[in-house]
């Protein structure tokens, strides 16, 4: 999910289009972008949660640590959906670099 968004942002920069690190709050560009990004982040949260629910019991039975999986599948999409400031796509790119 995040790779798709960051790839789109980086391809825009490669074409010579100037992109800002953070869009100004309340601008039409920020609002239109958020109309697409927030629902995708919410879908990523739901999908990540479902994958984690399936993964967790098997990982616990085998004695594996589930903390990294929880961070990637639940925490990151949650932060991107509910804690990220409006128009701040720098945080999404930073989340991708952590992987």
Overview of the structural elements:
The two termini are 13 Å apart. The protein has one domain (2-98). The protein has helices at residues 2-14, 28-62, 67-83, 90-98. By secondary structure, it is an all-alpha fold. It is elongated. The longest helix is centred in the middle third of the chain and has 35 residues, at 28-62. It is built from 4 helices and no strands. Helix content is 75%, strand content 0%.
As a percent range, the share of strand residues is under 5%
Tell me about the largest β-sheet: none
How far apart the termini lie comes to 13 Å
From the alpha-carbon coordinates, what is the Rg to the nearest angstrom?
16 Å
Can you count the beta strands? 0
| Tally of separate domains | 1
Shape: elongated
Structural class: mainly alpha
Identify the notable features of this structure and list them briefly.
disordered N terminus, 0% strand, 99 residues, mainly alpha, 4 helices
Short note summarizing the structure:
This protein is mainly alpha-helical and 99 residues long.
Question: How are the secondary structure elements laid out?
Answer:
Blueprint: H1 2-14, H2 28-62, H3 67-83, H4 90-98
Helix pairs in contact: 1-4, 2-3
